[in-house]
Amino acid sequence: MPRVLLIEDDRAVREGVALALRRQGHDVAAAGTGEEGLERLRSFRPDVVVLDLMLPGMPGLDVCRAMRALDQTLPILMATARGDDVDIVVGLEAGADDYVVKPVQARVLEARIRAVLRRATAVAATDGGIPKIDTYGELAIDRAGHSVTWQGAPVPLAPSELRLLLTLSAAPGQVFSRQQLLEAVWEHSYHGDARLVDACVRRLRAKMGEPSREPRYIQTVRGFGYRFVSP
């Protein structure tokens, strides 16, 4: 039973969403503040977090950053009452894997939760059961173990970051449109969510020590998308 930590300050919304998630078979822990959410994170050990961006006291962005500092691999689904691009991009830059705009229908939230959980638990194919490790210069990608190292040091990646890197690096040199990556990594079909791709690429580059102007591995194809280049 997937464990969901719901952090939402509006009591009516919190109770309604928690009830809908429980009806879908989730084990739900709910918190009304960011501080309470961080406490529940340690005791409840969720599989995914649904985090309201607008919280009293400790802002949702700070909660997201604190959670990322504690666990880089925990899926975080950000909920925002505003559809403003700036708010959404800032939330994604803080470490959220995906987002929904409130008020959100229960079936939409459930679909997003299921998608982010699939990204977190998917098992990459192996060749005859033998782990496959691809090496690109100082970058090593263990496709079976879902781990990445840079210059021999582990690179902690969120589920969306890992899935994006696995997708791009599976076909070095191939150009992927933002729409293709959106569908492959996030399972979205709405083209407006391409900002998810851009924000995730920026986070991934930063963790890999990639220079923003002349990235070595993940290159931007202007007006189209991205490609992975093997040095």
From TrEMBL:
DNA-binding region: 131-230
SUPFAM superfamilies the record matches: C-terminal effector domain of the bipartite response regulators, CheY-like
Domain OmpR/PhoB-type span(s) in chain numbering: 131-230
Signal peptide positions (record): none
Keyword terms of this UniProt record: DNA-binding, Phosphoprotein, Transcription, Transcription regulation, Two-component regulatory system
InterPro entries: CheY-like_superfamily (IPR011006), OmpR/PhoB-type_DNA-bd (IPR001867), Sig_transdc_resp-reg_C-effctor (IPR016032), Sig_transdc_resp-reg_receiver (IPR001789), WalR-like (IPR039420), WH-like_DNA-bd_sf (IPR036388)
Keyword set includes Phosphoprotein: yes
GO biological process: regulation of DNA-templated transcription
Residue ranges annotated for the Response regulatory domain, each copy included: 3-117
Modified residues (4-aspartylphosphate): D52
Name of the featured protein: DNA-binding response OmpR family regulator
